Amino acid sequence: MEKHMLALQLSHILGEPYSREWVYEQLELPKKESFGDLAFPCFPLAKEFKKNPKLIADELAEKLKHPHITKAESAGGYVNVFLDQSFFTEETLKEVLANDRDYGSHNFGAEKTVVLDMSSPNIAKPFSMGHLRSTIIGNAISNLAEKCGFETVKVNYIGDYGTQFGKLVAAYHRWGDDDAIQADPLTELTRIYVKFHEEAKTDPTLIDEGRTCFKKLEDADPEVLELWRWFKDVSLQEFDRIYDLLGVTFDLTRGEAYYNDKMEGVIKRIAGAGLLEESDGAQVVRLDEQELPPCLIRKSNGTTTYATRDLAAAIDRYESFHFAESLYLVGHEQTLHFQQVKYVLDKMDLPWANDMHHVPFGMILKDGKKMSTRAGKTVLLEQVLQEAIDRARENIADKNPDLKNQEQVARQVGVGSVIFHDLKHDRTHDVEFSLDDMLSFEGNTGPYVQYTHVRTKSLLKKAGYEKEDAEVKLVDEKAWPLIKLVRAFPKVVKESYEQYDPSRIAKYLLDVSRSFNHYYAHNQILDSDQEAGRLTLIYSVNLILQNGLEILGIEAPDQM
RNA sequence: GUCCCAGUAGCUCAGCUGGAUAGAGCAACAGCCUUCUAAGCUGUGGGUCGGGAGUUCGAAUCUCUCCUGGGACGCCA
């Protein structure tokens, strides 16, 4: 609101050709506290006025008068504006108290549904760090969507189909060991899957054998079907353990195989729309106008592809949920695939195809290279989580040995550090895997934010703070940077959702934490002359940290 | 070969869709616990924003080009 206010004032002074909107776009947040709270650069005006920007700034600063602006000064071609701190402090604290737990929420998503395709691990393969990104980012975006008023449907689209399972079955026929699979399913299944690919290097007939086995699966051969079910069951059990640890739930867990009997119908629809063409014995949809390679619908041996299944799934999702947005939390490397799927639906005259968005993310690299199951080069998420929890436990024993619920807090902090580490990075960038980095509890980390939350909680508890007798008046120059951050929260939530970018929340929480800790270290809060007002500020910070961590899917313990 | 993405401090990353002296954290070094949890705070050192050209009042940010790394490019998903 202060930005609109200033834009209006400046536009008024400048006159007709300079609209409020234009001025609003020009306004910036100064980089330094000493430059005030808002700044208007005068360089664009210099040319038109044929005047030195400094002179323009001088004049504007002189003319700018408003009850809620305490000072306007000209510096380096800018008009630096200082806001009335006590007025805006009071406004901010009132706003927080009025909304309380809903502070930062919006309702522009009301009556609309967002479907998220997330996590989507492949059965018979270990849950890797790569799946973590999809799970964690998807979960956070889902939480953001709910903050904005949307209904969400989280779908775990399990990879339980395709030639890879033919290969797995073929591998099982050769080297399968039932006892070993019972004992440690994913490890054993991965072992024979890796072995299959190694052997296939010298014996290419194995690949055909795999394809044949998949064909049998698609034709519902009882023996193959039985194996497939078994692999699937044991895998899902393993995945559930991890979802429990992460605290992530789904509204729908559905495998690709679910769409098996819907394939022919979809293919008929595509053909009916006159899109299907024969090519090298396979059936494809050409996407020449989009300058994309054709989308493969049916392979030459008659089996379907994952594109076909994604098409069937997309149609099914629309018919089930009539989504406003359908998001796919899937790695960067599948960008082309989702473009193809979208265009095929578009060509089928399904207008909602435009509401589908691939939300890509970068890969987790090991020594600068992609980690691949086939090469047996993956880092297992569960081991990482356990290691994180162990380190958190050691920390507690060292720093707060009398803490109650140590095991629970160790879990919250350990898991929180892993989740936060993932979410603080720009979604689309690749990240180099580093255990030490991920399990660090100092600096820009999840535990740092959690610890800050604990501090606010502890202050409120000690003071016996009650929201009912909150004081919204606070004159405290030192608190101003923190107040400004509190003010920004709703906007950060909105932008974070619109950009599908949880890292904005993570970075914001670090800013809030840093600002709070600085304030905390330099100002007495309890038993100070403005204790009541300061506590309301602490309450606001507490609310934001708790809310923000919740959005990221991280728990906030009261003590640690 | 074609297309896409990235390159910022020793390391990991920010940099708000073109603006003021490019910022955090880690690591290193030096301080701060008889006061609200030291998982914290304060300070120091550390940069040719991959190279080059262009656009303009102004470029880490936009355009072009080159270098480097990564990814994708119908019968894997």
Automatic annotation (TrEMBL):
Q: Where in the cell is it found?
A: Cytoplasm
Q: What class of enzyme is it?
A: ligase
Q: Which gene encodes it?
A: argS
Could you tell me the Gene Ontology terms of the biological process aspect for this record?
arginyl-tRNA aminoacylation
Among InterPro entries, the record links this protein to: Arg-tRNA-ligase, Arg-tRNA-synth_N, Arg-tRNA-synth_N_sf, ArgRS_core, DALR_anticod-bd, Rossmann-like_a/b/a_fold, tRNAsynth_Ia_anticodon-bd
Record's protein name: Arginine--tRNA ligase
GO terms of molecular function: arginine-tRNA ligase activity; ATP binding
Q: Which organism is it from?
A: Halobacillus salinus
- Describe the protein's quaternary organization and the partners it interacts with: Monomer.
Does the record's keyword annotation contain Transcription regulation?
no
